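Support request, please re-run this one:
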Amino acid sequence: MRQLGVEVFDETLLFARDGPDYSLTNAKGLRSEANMTFRFGDHVLDAARRELRRGSQHIAVEPQVFDLLVHLLQNHHRVVSKEELIDSVWAGRSISDSTFTSQINAARRAIGDSGANQTLIRTLPRKGIRFVGSVDVLSDGAGLDESGASRVSTGRRTYPALPDKPSIVVLPFENLSAEKGTDYLADGIVEAITSALSRVRSFFVIARMSAYTYRGRSVNVRDIGKELGVAYVLEGSVQKARAQLRITVQLIETEKGTHVWSSRYDGAIGDLFDLQDRISAQVMGALGPSLRTAEIERSRRKRPQDLGSYDYTMRAMPHVWAREKDENSKALGLLETAISADPDYALALSLAGWCHAQCLVYNWVENIVESRDKALSFAERAAELSGDDPMVLAILGAIHSLVQNHGTARVLLERALAIDPNDAWAWGRLGWLENYVGQPQNAITNFERALRLSPLDPTNFNNYVGMGSANEIMQNYDQAAALFQRALEERPNATWIYRHLASSLYGAGRFEEARRAFAQLTEIFPDLTITKFKQAMRFQQAAIDRMAENLQRLGLRD
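Re-run finished. Output below.
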């Protein structure tokens, strides 16, 4: 029904189009100024004209879906609750959950997003909805020209805020090949890496089409960071010479323009798709630890008054992975602060659970049952909040493996690897699970894969411990001792390793070395007994009994 300059789309919402000062008025009399233009990726939404375009293409959008987009874009800096959206778009009228979900999905489809990807409109369980894409807000007077391009704004340009997670754009790689018509090689590598990154919910990744707007442009990485709202840029080059390819990749922090990590990959072009997959896997395996390290450093640079739950969690990370008693206590203190700031932050909850699980297996506490219960409590709470973040899933799987819920652990770890098959830490934890269930050969395969994916990861010492344990289970004691010694060379403060080293040296018949290792063990753990040792071990009983017998012969009391 049309009435003199007013379109009635809904009995409770009137959309006046009487002039340039367009406004939205709902049945409660709330007025929301919408004389703005929003640019995100290759889309432009002009609220005054009620137009959504992708490039020069006009996209038809239902009125309520359009207003959903306007409200989310206006509030892209924060999470918008379901109640707030209903109040704004439906005038507070009661609607069904299915109606609300279908309208959110329609908004996603209109801008090329989906419920599976959620790269622009993200649902945060128990919190609400947030537009997480980078947004340029153009002030009054900015809009679309007849070609669909955005008009220049005379107002001050605003930039999107950085998300509370590692944020990255993969720029088009430079083609350094002498041969013409080989741009497809560089584009294929970029698409493979972007696709792999986008599957990881722990990362905020700019869509490929937005990244390609920088092709051929000379733009400072700091400016790219501001324009896209990302903390990191991944750039690179591809060079083809006859049947060989050389690909160089570097990760740059946008705040200071500093290089975080770089690497070079060479291979034959004979099987291009296999080469793309291999390089993408290697890049992803190296990116994860590099980004975590860079995020930790960024959080340390912040002033105390600027710290939030994410920052405290990042600060806790190096203490979590140190696998040392004092470091573990520091991690728990920081994570408790993070959880106090945001009780529903799944990553902080899962890491706290992991810290309590470590107390359980490294003989750091007297009350093992209490640590087990705390580990499971945090794990279950995190699982309720985030069932699709591969890092959270991997941590939860590791916790369940340590409390000997092996079936649940395998499901969680395999689900994490289905989402992010290049997560070296998850492969390592799956290796430990294979040790626990008596499959040491499978364990070694998984540990080797973890080392290959992330050869410079500071937590790799634990993969050597895992391979040492696999050999210890198989009674290959000399090989086990060599791997435990390698792990101690990389992480001397991980003194719990002496439990395994002393036992393996004794099993190898290297009694004098075994006694020296045992002396260090008892100096560090003066209250350790055979009973406590067995309670901490997670292997099958026959393997535990063999290890305990070796330690008992060295003098460990019952």
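The chain is about 50% helix and 15% strand. Residues 167-298 form a domain with the Rossmann fold fold (CATH 3.40.50.10610).
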